[in-house]
Amino acid sequence: MATPTNTPLMPKATAVWLVENTALSFDQIAAFCRLHPLEVKAIADGEAAQGIKGLDPIITGQLTREEIEKAVKNPDHRLKLADPKVRVPEAKRRGPRYTPVSRRHDRPNAILWLLRNHPELKDAAIMRLVGTTKTTIQQIRERTHWNAANLAPSDPVTLGLCSQLELDLEVEKAAKGMPVREAGDPGAATLLPVDETVTPEGLVGAGNYGSGSRGEEADDLDADKIFAKLKSLKGPDADAEEEPEGF
Asked: How far from the centroid of its chain's Cα atoms is residue 33's Cα?
């Protein structure tokens, strides 16, 4: 007996309606509703599915009248589900992320790392990334966790609790909700502009010490004086060795 690839919605209620409103055989109804033919016979005899209201598969879009008429005329024909007019996407499961037992002891360290390095993340974001509870996050934040003394911040990506893409998305989402800092706010400090760090000669910080003692010493340096001092330290023997013959 051929079995359809898909099962109709509420198969017993559909079988009740087909038994009461069509001349289909028990085998045809059983094949369509994925029931045993004896179960369909029991429904027809009133021994099973008592109190179940029949569900019209035509109204629900699971069958067409032409398909039913075709099956009534040909007892060997098996009913086929009609193609749905609207494809409903499969709902994604929402809730805390499942963490393997072998990695659950790493979650407090990952939570501590997120609290220190990304304080803009809300508790809900941390719960999605690490798969923890709000109570645990609060305990680690307030240092009241039972193992607070032994916690060491660790990157959740390195620990395998989440991916780098998931972490970046949560951080980006949290950053959008942060208020814009003003220019005078210490937290809004950025790197110095290029013209303030590069000298006109193109050297970064070379010889530009201001008007202090270092700048004056740099101006007083003379190459001839330095080499003269070096020659006097070498002595006359060293000078004789350095002079080639013939001079």
From this structure: 40
Backbone angles phi, psi at 20, to 5 degrees: -80, -25
Query: What is residue 158's DSSP assignment?
Result: H
Residue type at 88 in one-letter notation: V
Task: For residue range 106-155, list pLDDT tens digits in order.
Answer: 899 999 999 999 999 999 999 999 988 999 999 999 999 999 899 999 99
Q: How far is CA 219 from CA 205, 223, 229, 231, in A?
A: 16, 11, 18, 22
Instruction: Report CA torsion sign: 30, 35, 41, 46.
Output: negative
Which residues, including other chains, have CB under 8 Å from residue 240's CB and lie 6 or more apart?
A: none
Collapse the DSSP code of 198 into the 3-class scheme (helix H, G, I; strand E, B; otherwise coil) and give the result: strand
SS3 category, 154: coil
In DSSP terms, 198 is beta-bridged to 204
The residue to which tokens 């809900």 are assigned: 124
The Cα–Cα gap between 13 and 8 comes to: 10
The predicted-structure confidence for 216-245, as pLDDT tens digits, reads as follows 455 556 667 776 776 666 655 544 445 555
- How far apart CA 51 and CA 58 sit, in angstroms, is 21
Two structure tokens written together for 43: 């429904």
**C-alpha distances out from residue 179 to 121, 172, 182, 188, Å:** 14, 13, 9, 11
* pLDDT tens per residue across span 25-83: 999 999 999 889 999 999 988 888 788 888 899 888 888 899 999 989 998 998 888 87
